[in-house]
Design a protein that fits this description.
The complex is a heterodimer of chains A (339) and B (354). Helices cover 57% and strands 8% of the residues of chain A. Chain A is of the alpha/beta class and 339 residues long. In chain A, the strands form 2 sheets. Chain A has a 5-stranded parallel beta sheet. Chain A has a two-stranded parallel sheet with strand order 6-7. Chain B has 354 residues and is of the alpha/beta class. Chain B has 3 domains: 183 residues, P-loop containing nucleotide triphosphate hydrolases (Rossmann fold), CATH 3.40.50.300; 48 residues; 102 residues, Up-down Bundle (Zinc Finger, Delta Prime, domain 3). Chain B is 52% helix and 13% strand. The N and C termini of chain B lie far apart (58 Å). Classes of the chains: A alpha/beta (339), B alpha/beta (354). At the A-B interface, helix 4, helix 9, helix 12, helix 13 and helix 14 of A face helix 2, helix 5, helix 6, strand 7 and helix 12 of B. The structure holds adenosine-5'-triphosphate (2 copies) and magnesium ion (2 copies). The site of one adenosine-5'-triphosphate (ATP) has 20 residues of chain A, from helix 3 and helix 9.
């Protein structure tokens, strides 16, 4: 019989705060919820913000702290994008749960007289389903609180959003991130030098989940002493010199040179969306380019980025961006000659 | 057995390219466990090979005892019941599938399988719970809905199931999924590496492979290892002993596109467009993916163009390929590209030669 592989806990889960008080960097929501623990008052909630900033963590923590493990099942309904949340579910499962009267609490936990329905990743709910929620939310507001969680607040219809206390989850600051990382390093016995630490917090862009995943991967692959290069290796960011060569080729004004670089980038497997975002940073910071040149490059970059999201081909979008950049840099008019 | 399968390395120690990645994967699972993984890189680069070797490293030879099943799945979606058929490849330790085969139902299939895996976790003699691996191919073709549905699932079921995702373009995998995985980039092997593999295979097959021929096969493979190996085998079938100036054939559909490209460059007229349309249609009915047709056609056309024109033509290729992804009927957009090209090219010819 083959050896059974036992799971060791993922660090992301291992270091997920269990109490709202331990959620870092989101003071406003933490203050409100700590208050809830004392008074038992809770508004409907809407958490929004980029990935890995603590939204799910906070919602789960407050639910556990309010009701404890015993009542959790009967008082909390957690639905996310993996659950079906079409109109029919809103009208049946969600409504039924919302309608149930609450029983008495148990000692040791605040157990306020309502249930919580957590709708995680709510931006993937259709507008129709959201509309169907409005009535339920109003009708049962005495016994039920809703907590919506999403990345983009614009995807939540106004009538729902306006009924909620909204909290924006900010990307974690560099020093806060460093604090958490250093704590984990200590617990796990890892050794990162200053450069590796700052690389890690730079490439994670305020996303703590990413930072922790990179850290664990690097630790597994490279052992307990981790360098800045190791971090870059697991992060999937494009090395600076790749970008530099592309820009250089664009500056040369020779189409075939740029084409060669583009082909190389695709063969190396670099994600083109990542190239775009790093090219964007480069252009913005450039002191050589005029404002008009920057505008021309960025406009096409934005369009190409959208095209990628629509499923367009990486190679074609990249070659178009490179060609446009090249023409902007040599001040050739944007209009096509033979159009 | 085809050489691509016969000479696919089975273990992480035996890989001939991506040796560093293989070593790192070994370290990664040395303690028996790993995070969710996302392998990405161009086609024919060696992703699948590494994934299979990884499973073998984790579970031993029994990971290679796979059965291929085509079974019906019943999914309950609220009050509705959906039935669909899907092919899975599985061993005692893992399940592999192409969820995009399920079309817009892909989300339900993925969820169902993960939940089933979580229910039937393997146990060892003392009752410790283990985990299984779910390999999802072509995740870049997975609907956005299905990708979003993975987010919380990847966290919630992380004890019961590891996901190994595999795709060509990482850009098409949503950020939220990418940031939950260890991303492993598998680049196309270099020309030298491909040459080494070809020489290795030739030696094993007791063939004398002239360096010139090997060189041309490598060049034509465009850093696609699978293609290079297939091509070597095709040459072997075609004639042996090899000669150094033996033709290295491209595939039929590629030859056909070269022909189309010539049609377009020779005459730009509605009549010619009509002819080309018929040929494009033929390619589509032979299941050549439309974006591949467009890219290949672009490459062929570009060989004959002035650099001034190249900018413009690339732009329109990108433009119409994007439309093609949004639209339903690929032929419209392919034809539109050809029409646009003809118009540009004709104006250029008139402006240049009068
Ligand atoms: N503010 C924070 N304080 C402490 N840990 C955090 C914080 N934000 C994120 N983390 C860490 O990152 C992991 C992921 O956080 P969480 O699941 O809350 O992200 P999220 O905001 O819900 O992201 P997504 O939008 O991708 O669902 C947690 O398990 C925790 O380890
Ligand atoms: N590390 C390796 N060493 C030697 N040969 C390899 C290696 N990796 C792949 N090959 C050869 O290349 C062929 C193609 O590799 P593989 O099927 O893994 O590609 P892939 O990246 O999964 O491609 P696709 O994206 O098209 O599915 C294999 O059949 C094998 O013969
Ligand atoms: Mg979340
Ligand atoms: Mg493959």
């Amino acid at each position: 019989m083959a050896p059974l592989l036992r799971t060791t806990q993922q660090w992301v889960e291992k270091y997920r705060p269990r109490k709202v008080q331990d959620v870092a960097h989101q003071e406003e929501v933490v203050r409100t919820l700590v208050n809830t623990l004392e008074t038992g008052n809770l508004p409907h909630l809407l958490f929004y913000g980029p990935p890995g900033t603590g939204k799910t963590t906070t919602a789960l923590a407050i639910a556990h702290q309010l009701f404890g493990p015993e009542l959790y099942k009967s008082r909390v309904l957690e639905l996310n994008a993996s659950d079906d949340r079409g109109i029919s579910i809103v009208r049946t499962k969600i409504k039924d749960f919302a309608a149930v009267a609450v029983g008495s609490g148990i000692s040791g936990y605040p157990c306020p007289p309502f249930k919580i329905i957590i709708l995680d990743e709510a931006d993937s709910m259709t507008e129709d389903a959201q509309n169907a929620l409005r009535r339920t939310m109003e009708t049962y507001s005495k016994v039920t609180r809703f907590c919506f969680i999403c990345n983009y607040i614009s995807r939540i219809i106004e009538p729902l959003a306006s009924r909620c206390a909204k909290f924006r989850f900010k990307p974690l600051h560099e020093d806060i991130m460093l604090g958490r990382i250093q704590y984990i390093c200590q617990e796990e016995g890892l050794d990162l030098d200053q450069e590796a630490l700052s690389t890690l917090s730079r490439v994670s862009e305020g996303d703590l989940r990413r930072a922790i995943t990179y850290l664990q991967s690097a630790a597994r692959m490279y052992g307990s002493s981790i360098s800045s290069d190791n971090i870059i290796g697991v992060s999937g960011i494009v090395p600076d010199d790749v970008l530099k060569r592309l820009v250089q080729a664009c500056k040369s004004g020779e189409f075939d040179l740029a084409h060669t670089e583009v082909t190389e980038i695709i063969a190396e497997g670099h994600p083109v969306s990542q190239i775009f975002s790093q090219l964007f940073d480069y252009v913005i910071q450039s002191t050589e380019m005029s404002d008009e040149q920057k505008a021309r490059v960025c406009e096409r970059l934005a369009e190409a980025d959208k095209c990628l999201i629509d499923g367009a081909d990486e190679y074609l979008q990249l070659i178009d961006v490179a060609s446009n950049t090249m023409r902007a840099l040599s001040n050739v008019t944007q209009e096509c000659t033979y159009f | 057995m085809l050489w691509v399968d016969k000479y696919r390395p089975r273990t992480l120690d035996k890989v001939m390219v991506h040796t560093e990645e293989a070593q790192r994967l070994k370290n990664l699972i040395a303690q028996g466990d790993c995070p969710h993984l996302l392998f990405y890189g161009p086609t024919g680069a060696g992703k699948k090979t590494l994934i299979m070797a990884l499973l073998r490293e984790m579970y031993g030879v029994s990971a290679e005892k796979v059965k291929v099943e085509n079974k019906p799945w019943k999914v309950e979606v609220g009050a509705r019941k959906i039935e669909l058929e899907l092919t899975t490849v599985s061993s005692n330790h893992h399940v592999e599938l192409n969820p995009s085969d399920a079309g817009f139902q892909d989300r339900y299939v993925v969820q169902l399988i993960i939940k089933e895996m979580a229910k039937n976790r393997p146990l060892d003699v003392v009752g410790n719970k283990g985990f299984k691996v779910l390999v999802l191919n072509e995740v870049d073709k997975l609907s956005k809905d299905a990708q979003h549905s993975l987010r919380r699932t990847m966290e919630k079921y992380s004890a019961a199931c590891r996901l190994v995702l595999c795709c060509n373009s990482a850009s098409k995998v949503i950020e939220a999924v990418r940031s939950r995985c260890l991303n492993i980039r598998i680049n196309a092997p270099s020309r030298d590496e491909i040459l080494d593999v070809l020489l290795f295979i030739a030696k094993k097959e007791n063939l004398v492979l002239p360096p010139e021929l090997a060189g041309r096969i490598v060049l034509q493979s465009n850093r696609n290892l699978r293609r290079a190996i297939l091509c070597l085998e095709a040459c072997r079938v075609q004639q042996y002993p090899f000669t150094k100036d033996q033709v290295v054939q491209t595939t039929d559909w590629e030859q056909f596109i070269t022909e189309i490209s010539n049609d377009i460059l020779n005459e730009q007229s509605p009549k010619r467009l009509f002819l080309v349309r018929g040929k494009l249609y033929e390619l589509l009915t032979n299941c050549i993916p439309p974006e591949l047709i467009l890219k290949r056609l672009l490459q062929e056309l570009m060989k004959k163009l002035d650099s001034e024109l190249k900018h413009e033509v690339c732009h329109w290729a990108a433009f119409y390929e994007h439309r093609l992804q949004l639209g339903q009927k690929a032929i419209f957009h392919l034809e539109a590209f050809v029409a646009k090209f003809m118009s540009i090219y004709k104006k250029f010819l008139i402006a240049t030669f009068g």
